[in-house]
Automatic annotation (TrEMBL):
Topological type in the membrane: Multi-pass membrane protein
Alphabetized HAMAP family for the sequence: CDP_archaeol_synth
Keyword list, A-Z: Cell membrane, Lipid biosynthesis, Lipid metabolism, Magnesium, Membrane, Nucleotidyltransferase, Phospholipid biosynthesis, Phospholipid metabolism, Transferase, Transmembrane, Transmembrane helix
This protein's GO CC annotations: plasma membrane
TM segment ranges: 50-70, 90-107, 127-145, 152-173
GO biological process, alphabetically ordered: glycerophospholipid biosynthetic process
Protein species of origin: Haloplanus salinus
EC number: 2.7.7.67
Required co-factors: Mg(2+)
Name of the featured protein: CDP-archaeol synthase
Protein location: Cell membrane
């Protein structure tokens, strides 16, 4: 019961979890803001690049397609119900996660925080808010049916823990400049 609830919630969010990590690996090149500033501060900063955003989105969508293929097998093994991802839902989760992270960088720069500065809470949930918001816009029926209140509660509690763990791992592996 609890296992299938947690599994369903995390499975549904996987296409939103992976883009940020893929962006860390793929990042570099031209920043989205092209170096532009607003009130003397960078619009977004060097940590938000075209390449990281594009690769992150593509990896998230590709993962959703792979999960769709695996769904019958994994759902049978777990004895629970796991969602599949219509294309519009996959794009909503993956691109929305990237946009949520970009939106948070915009806010951080307005608050005077430099690239890489930690803003607890915002750093761990920005991409969740972005992913769910764009999923609701692009695939409203799917999003409402998939993210039941119990699943949403699991997502809000488990995501920060997962995010902190994967980022600390990426930091220890030398892939990321800060452990958050
Ligand atoms: N990254 C990227 N494009 C994105 C998101 C992330 O290229 N849209 C890459 C960058 O190399 C970035 C790294 O992933 O430095 C880590 O991402 P994140 O922690 O979100 O960025 P920060 O460098 O911490 O910058 P910010 O303070 O703006 O969040
Ligand atoms: Mg960061
Ligand atoms: K971030």
């Amino acid at each position: 019961m609890i296992v299938s609830l947690v599994a369903g919630a995390l499975w549904a969010m996987l296409p939103a979890y992976v883009p940020n990590n893929a962006a860390v690996l793929a990042g570099g090149g031209r920043p989205i803001d092209g170096g532009r500033t607003l009130g003397g501060r960078r619009l977004l900063g060097d940590g938000k690049t075209w390449r990281g955003t594009a690769v992150g989105t593509l990896v998230g969508v590709a993962l959703a397609v792979a999960l769709n293929a695996l769904q019958p097998t994994v759902a049978a093994a777990l004895g629970g119900d796991l969602p599949t991802f219509p294309f519009r839902a996959a794009v909503g989760l993956a691109l929305g996660a990237m946009l949520g992270d970009i939106g948070a960088s915009f806010l951080k720069r307005r608050l005077g925080r430099r690239r890489g500065a930690a803003v607890p809470g915002l750093d761990q949930l920005d991409f969740v808010v972005g992913a769910l918001a764009l999923a609701v816009v692009l695939a409203p029926g799917w999003t409402v049916a998939t993210f039941s209140l119990p699943r949403l509660a699991v997502v809000v509690v488990a995501t920060p823990l997962l995010h902190l763990t994967t980022n600390a791992g990426a930091y220890l592996l030398g892939l990321k400049a800060e452990p958050w």
